[in-house]
Structure formats: C-alpha cells, structure tokens
Design brief:
The protein has 364 residues and is α/β, with parallel strands linked by helices. It contains twelve helices and 14 strands. It has two domains: 270 residues, P-loop containing nucleotide triphosphate hydrolases (Rossmann fold, 3-Layer(aba) Sandwich); 76 residues, Arc Repressor Mutant, subunit A (Orthogonal Bundle), CATH 1.10.10. β1 and β2 form a beta hairpin. It is elongated, with a radius of gyration of 24 Å.
Length: 364
C-alpha cells in the first residue's frame, strides 16, 4: 500500500465543498496506485458505491452488519483481510429499530467478540429524515471507512425507481460523498420476485438500470436450494475484478449467531437457475437417494420445527417447495424417509397418514 493511499485529510462538509478542479496526468501517475484499493481484500472497494441485492429472507442485513462489525474490529470478512484505516462504520437503518438491532448485534457479537471500544466505533442511524445531511455532518466530524444504507428502496428520495435520471441523481450524492471522504458506501437493495428463479445477474435488481450502472460492485445474495444455512454470494458486477469472479458463486455458511463464513466452495451461476427459461421446473429429476443425508436432516428439522405431526400431503408439499421438484418425486421422498426410519406414520387409522419425526442422530 503506497503512502499516497494512507494520507487522509478531513474534507469540508458536502454542501460547502468546492468542485474539485482539474488534476494532471503527472499527478495521477505519481500516486503510485498499482492495485485498486479495497476495504476487504479483493472484494469491497475502499472508495465508491456498491450494492448487495437479493430476495427477502436471504439475510442481507445480517451480512452487511457483519461487514460493518468486521471493519471496526479490523478482522477478516469471509476470509478477506481488512484494510481499514479508521475502523469506523455507520449503518443507516430504515427497516429495524433500536430494540431489534440491539438483539441482533448482541447475537452476532457472540461469534465476533467485539470489545466495548470497538463496538463504540460502529454507529447506527434510525432517524432517517434528512439522513444525507446527518451522514455528511458525522463523516466530517468522525470520518469512517464504511457506510451501509439499509435499504435503498426506503430511502430513495425520487418518485419512481424506474426512472433512470431520478435514480442516478440520488446516487450521485453518495458517489460525491464516497470520493470526498475516501470511504466505501454499500446499499442494500431487493431483486424482483420474477428474477428469483433466474441465474444471478446485475439486471435482477428492482427498478432502473441506472442503479447497477452507478455501482462499482454488485453482489447478488441467493438462498441455497437444499441447505437452509447456506447462501450463494454472487459477484455479478465488479469493475476491477477478474471474469473468473463473476461466473460462479462463493458458498457461505451462516452459524447459529447469524455470522457467515466462507466454505471455499463455488457453484456456476447457471446451476443456481431452476432452468434455462427461468420458469419453475416441473420436471426437475432429483431422487432422494441422490442427496446427502445432511440435506435431508436439515429439511426434516425445518419441516417439523413446530414439533407437530404432519400429513402425507403436508410433507409432500414441503418437499416439493424446499427441493424445487414436482409432486410425484416429492412423494417418493416420503417413502425414502420411512425406509430410513427418519419419519414414522403414527396414525391408527389405515386410511390416514400422520407422521412424526424420528430420532436419527445415529445416522448422522
């Protein structure tokens, strides 16, 4: 890392700043930047705007909060070393209140173990009225490395997310802020429901194409179709990343405290789509015996999580939804589970099927 990278001068507030004048090619050459600076090595840009997008319930907020915590703790994020200079983070919350974040922060800290001093360097903003001005004032007084905007759709100040000029005008404010304060600004945004069955793409985000166009990096976070604690981190746009990074997901696993870790596994993007047309496949041929026992155990725990008995129809529908298969092979899963003694029909009526989960720990 060059000395030029490490020099930081607190700039004037956003509204009072002068437009930056021309700089010469000589100046740029002598900055000595041979590698694009990153906040987390080879992933998150040190300066600029980027986005994490995905469907509901993929735990996007959890992942971004973990990143903010790793920044203040100067610890790796998904095995990516932290290059933070100030170890300060700001999280703007439009969807959660103080009580929810208190619970979630305490939960995640059971794994990350931030000290009180480190935790004091991550700040949360819940009152989002005039939040851009509040961010500017805070960054001028206490410059940070990372700002998380959760969520873009709630805080967008335009009238129409589909209007390219409105989206770009809003995001320009953050591009200016990122450049002025030499910080990284990440947006949480949602993908369209119809895109959940498609392969990961930078075009899956809701709204105007102007959103992804302004981003230096776009990550699509996907649920795994068989294991409920796995996610697929898909880099669908990265201006300075190799093409190899943008053709397959990075598989990450969530622990009991909502902290993700890298597994080292990768899955090609096309394998994350249900089929080539993006429509739910009704002829997907997966047989129960083809899947590892662990995948079945996770499903059974999920299906019987309320501890009640389930009918054959209940289980069949849950299997079909969970494994994305049609009804006929889903019914064969039930037969397989009975043969493996993982579930048992406890009904005394021969015409009625009512199943309970069996103890299968020995089979693990």
């Amino acid at each position: 890392m060059s000395n030029a990278e490490n020099i930081f001068v607190v700039p004037p507030p956003l509204e009072a700043a002068q437009e930056k004048q021309f700089v010469t090619g000589e100046y740029l050459l002598n900055l000595g930047i041979d590698v694009i600076p990153t906040l987390f090595e080879g992933l998150i840009p040190k300066v600029g705007v980027w986005a994490l997008v995905g469907a509901s319930d993929t735990c996007k907020s959890m992942l971004l909060r973990q990143m903010a915590m790793c920044n203040v703790g100067n610890m790796p994020f998904l095995d990516k070393p932290c290059n933070s200079e100030r170890n300060r983070s700001i999280v703007v919350c439009s969807e959660d209140d103080e009580f929810a974040i208190s619970f979630l922060l305490r939960k995640q800290n059971k794994t990350l173990n931030l000290t009180d001093d480190q935790a004091s360097k991550i700040k949360f903003l819940f009152d989002t009225e005039d939040f851009i001005q509040k961010l500017d004032a805070e960054m001028a007084a206490n410059p940070g490395d990372l700002i998380v905007i959760d969520a873009f759709g709630d805080l967008f100040d335009g009238k129409d997310l589909n209007q390219n000029n409105q989206v770009r005008s809003f995001l320009n404010k953050f591009t200016i802020m990122a450049n002025r304060y030499k910080c990284s600004i990440g947006f949480l945004h949602h993908t369209g429901k119809r895109t959940e069955e498609l392969a990961p793409s930078k075009n899956n985000a809701i709204g105007s194409q102007g959103f992804e166009a302004k981003m230096r990096l776009v990550i699509d976070l996907r649920l795994d179709r068989t294991e409920i604690d796995l996610r697929h981190l898909c880099i669908v746009k990265g201006n300075y990343l190799s093409q190899e990074e943008k053709i397959a997901s990075h598989v990450i696993r969530m622990d009991e405290n909502f902290i993700f870790s890298a597994t080292g596994n990768r899955v090609p993007f096309e394998e994350l789509a249900l089929n080539s047309t993006g429509e739910p496949s009704k002829n997907k041929k997966i047989e129960a015996i083809e899947l590892p026992n662990e995948a079945h155990f996770k499903f059974i725990e999920h299906a019987f999580k309320l501890g009640r008995q389930l009918s054959k129809r209940d289980i069949s529908e849950k299997v079909a939804h969970y494994f994305k298969i049609s009804d006929k092979p889903a019914r064969r899963f039930i037969e397989y589970y009975e043969e493996m003694l993982w579930i048992k029909n406890v009904s005394k009526n021969p015409k009625v099927f009512s199943y309970e989960k069996m103890k299968y720990e020995d089979a693990k």
